[in-house]
């Protein structure tokens, strides 16, 4: 494979004294320091017998050591698995075995994990400063997909996948040296990982909030300029006066992790928030389409145009398909080889449904695998969820199919009420009936499940379907079927 200059080393050559990481404690690490530390980590991995092509896991919250460990592994020719640190220990161990990780790097040791390495020991390893190279097309990062329909798959991406995505993003959203992007999403989610590569190419800094710190406090304390959020985070910021003030000081707010409800977009626009809506997926290293700067309200209610022309199409059945430099290397299989499922002409089917509007912006309408049929009618849970979230008394909503003897399935909604409100099923149905046909009205409203697993920033829909199955054929809960 071809070799290229490590992007961290290139950034250190451009502006060695610029900060690349601003930790929650306020500690700053410059590009030059990170570059030297990455060389030490690469030397430590080689001394530990990790030959090129091995895999290791990086476990723990984002901190000053995360960047040099990540890029040190790339320089040593190793691939890094980024597991969800909040997984239960048995599931974590199972995933580490699936990824065939030789060792785990993290801030605290645990006896039941594979060979554990301390970040501090790695950074202190003797090394020789030299121009660093990487293999941009080799497997570099393993990251779990959202797992919305069952067991998450391990997607394998190259450095070139991430760098191509970051470059396309930076052409659309201005990110300059001296800017600070808040690390508000976890490193084990592709949106958090995208922040790292965008800042690396632009010479900007990643700022980490303190544990438990609100986003509005972190934005103000750390002088943040850019922010990535999911809908729930945006809603909470807009609900608080301090949150609205914090949002207004930002140069860019990138909203992803699923569709942003129309009412939130309108509220953000009324608050003069520099909002960008987007569509992306793990298999493309984050963004695929994004709205442009200063987009109109109508445009913000789409996912924007492709960041790279010719990389998105909608098939005859409405499925969104993608291709291009950002497309991953494939899924890791149990027997080792990668599998990249593409069509005969090279397009990756996303399982998402959508269409292009007259202006060429992508409108995402739902998931093929989330859809269910009720009495012969196709129901997309996302449509009902969006209608529920548009109501002032609903903070979050997820819809799952519940078995029904007459209709096959009916929609059931899990609701988290907004602060100060309680769930009123009759009122919810009455108001939903103004925007949804009767067959799409949920037959029952249940409390938000406290043990709902989150893989990345998306809910586990398979868990919801299993949970909803226990409430099938509840005749007393059914609305009229008209």
Outline the structure in words.
The structure is a single chain. By secondary structure, the chain is of the alpha/beta class. The strands form seven sheets. Strands 3-2-12-11-13-14-15-16-17 form a nine-stranded mixed beta sheet, sandwiched between helices. An eight-stranded mixed beta sheet has the order 7-6-4-5-9-10-20-21. β29 (454-455) and β30 form a beta hairpin. α1 (7-14) packs antiparallel against α2, α8 crosses α10 and α9 (231-239) crosses α10 (241-248).
Q: Strand portion, in percent?
A: 25-35%
CATH architecture of the largest domain: 3-Layer(aba) Sandwich
Biggest sheet features = 9 strands, mixed
The number of E-state strands comes to: 30
Question: Based on CA inertia axes, which overall geometry fits?
Answer: globular
Overall pLDDT confidence: 89
Number of helices: 15
Question: Which runs of at least 5 residues are low in confidence (pLDDT < 50)?
Answer: 475-482
Task: Please name the fourth-level CATH homologous superfamily of the largest domain.
Answer: ANL, N-terminal domain
Distance between the termini: 62 Å
| CATH C-level category of the largest domain | Alpha Beta
Q: What's the CATH topology label of the largest domain?
A: Rossmann fold
């Amino acid at each position: 494979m071809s070799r290229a200059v490590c992007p961290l080393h290139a950034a250190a050559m451009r502006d060695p004294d610029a900060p690349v990481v601003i930790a929650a404690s306020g500690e700053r690490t410059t590009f030059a320091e990170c570059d030297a530390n990455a060389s030490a980590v690469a030397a430590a991995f080689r001394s530990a017998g990790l030959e090129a092509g091995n895999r290791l896991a990086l476990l723990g919250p984002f901190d000053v050591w995360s960047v040099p460990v990540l890029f040190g592994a790339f320089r040593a020719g190793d691939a890094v698995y980024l597991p969800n640190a909040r997984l239960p220990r048995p599931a974590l161990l199972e995933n580490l075995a699936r990824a065939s990780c030789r060792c785990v790097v993290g801030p605290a040791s645990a006896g039941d994990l594979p060979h554990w390495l301390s970040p501090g020991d790695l950074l202190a390893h003797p090394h020789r400063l030299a121009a660093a190279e990487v293999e941009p097309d080799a497997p570099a990062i393993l990251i779990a997909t959202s797992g919305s329909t069952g067991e998450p798959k391990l997607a394998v991406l190259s450095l070139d996948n991430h760098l191509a995505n970051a470059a396309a993003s930076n052409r659309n959203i201005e990110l300059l040296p001296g800017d600070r992007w808040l690390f508000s999403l976890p490193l084990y989610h592709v949106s958090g990982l995208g922040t790292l590569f965008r800042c690396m190419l632009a010479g900007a800094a990643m700022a980490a909030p303190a544990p438990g710190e609100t986003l509005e406090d972190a934005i103000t304390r750390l002088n943040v300029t850019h922010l990535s959020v999911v809908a729930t985070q945006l809603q909470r910021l807009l609900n608080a006066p301090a949150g609205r003030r914090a949002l207004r000081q930002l140069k860019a707010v990138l909203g992803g992790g699923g569709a942003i409800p129309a009412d939130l977009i309108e509220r953000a626009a009324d608050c003069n928030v520099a909002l960008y809506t987007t569509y992306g997926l793990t298999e493309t290293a984050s963004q695929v389409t994004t709205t442009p700067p200063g987009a109109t309200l109508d445009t913000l209610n789409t996912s924007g145009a492709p960041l790279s022309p010719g990389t998105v199409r909608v098939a005859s059945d409405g499925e969104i398909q993608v291709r291009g430099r950002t497309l991953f290397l494939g899924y890791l299989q149990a027997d080792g080889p990668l599998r990249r499922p593409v069509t005969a002409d090279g397009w990756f089917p996303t399982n998402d449904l959508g269409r292009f509007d007259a202006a060429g912006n992508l409108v995402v309408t739902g998931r093929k695998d989330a859809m269910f049929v009720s009495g012969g009618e196709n129901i997309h849970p996302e449509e009902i969820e969006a209608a529920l979230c548009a109501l002032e008394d609903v903070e979050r909503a997820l819809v799952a199919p519940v078995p029904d003897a007459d209709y096959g399935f009916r929609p059931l909604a899990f609701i988290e009420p907004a602060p100060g409100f309680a769930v009123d099923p009759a009122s919810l149905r009455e108001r939903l009936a103004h925007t949804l046909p009767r067959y799409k009205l949920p037959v029952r409203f249940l409390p938000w499940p406290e043990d709902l697993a989150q893989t990345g920033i998306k809910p586990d829909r398979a868990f919801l379907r299993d949970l909803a199955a226990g409430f099938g054929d509840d005749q007393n809960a059914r609305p009229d079927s008209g």
